[in-house]
Amino acid sequence: MNYRSLFIYGLTLCFTSVLIAQNDQVINREQMVKTQLEARGIKDPLTLYSMLNVPRHEFVPKNLVEHAYKDGALPIGSGQTISQPYIVAFMTQTLKLKSTDKVLEIGTGSGYQAAVLGKIVDSVFTVEIIKDLALSAKSRLKNLGFDNVIVKWGDGYHGWPEKASFDAIMVTAGAESIPQPLVDQLKNGGHMVIPVGPSDNVTYLVSVFKKKDRIITKNLFPVRFVPFTRKQ
Ligand code: SAH
Asked: Rounded to the nearest whole angstrom, what is the distance from the C-alpha of residue 114 to the centroid of ligand 1?
């Protein structure tokens, strides 16, 4: 075998192993949707479609890729975490999204939840308080082609007034109470989902529905989230 054919042979081997690895991730994702989501009652077709198609392994640190589709949260650096797939799906389903919706997320983290929303709706505006995370999520989402997801570095307590109002709002950090600016930026008829609880007690996932400028809240179930922090 001459050098040229050796080179082509090597290239083919490389290409094939990349294809096999990617196919493995598709299988892992199918398994995740079946055993962690459908089996636990996630039914919304848009949520299931999105969870099946967003490559979660691209949003976790390189050394944790083999755990990307497991049934749990994972660290993403700066002391923060990417939520368990079931929680991502449950929160997404709770918003009762439509393809024409404009959505606000507070707590970009890795950008995974924003990408899951982005596959479903028209546009996603997401705010992250830690600069490093905001910058890396921004470039990750751009590289993966999520052009309808816009990331901003800032304190999400204030929402994103310039882009308001929103059809739906999701907060992915545990707050002590529901920030009033977020209530103000939610459209009538819109849904919000937010983990709420005092720092020394149980945090509940809370669904918020806005009707005629008033909100109706409902505690869903206890959850664990990293804390909602404020800029000094
Ligand atoms: N949705 C993320 C996971 C979020 S972890 C994902 O899919 O990966 C919660 C994130 O909320 C953390 O990155 C944390 O820095 C951020 N956060 C906490 N308080 C915030 C605030 N006031 N404004 C914006 N982001 C905040």
From this structure: 11
| Low-confidence residues in the chain, pLDDT < 70 | 1, 6-20, 232
Count of residues making up the chain = 232
Sequence-separated (6 or more) residues with CB below 8 Å from residue 160 = 104, 125, 127, 152, 185
| Tokens describing residue 113 | 């939840």
Could you tell me the distance, in angstroms and rounded to a whole number, from the CA of residue 138 to the centre of ligand 1? 14
14-27 pLDDT per residue, tens: 566 666 677 899 99
For the entire predicted model, the pTM comes to 0.93
Which 3-state string (H, E, C) describes 157-214? HHCCHHHCCEEEEEECCEECCCCHHHHHCEEEEEEEEEEECCCCCCEEEEEEEEECCE
Which residue in the list 5, 50, 78, 83 is annotated as catalytic?
83
Each residue's pLDDT tens digit, 114-124 = 999 999 999 99
Given a contact cutoff of 8 angstroms between Cβ atoms, the answer to whether 20 and 50 are in contact is no
CA atoms within 13 A on the CB side of 56: 30
So where are the chain's domains?
Answer: 3-223
CATH fold of the domain at 3-223? Rossmann fold (3.40.50)
Q: CB atoms < 10 A from the CB of 189, how many? A: 10
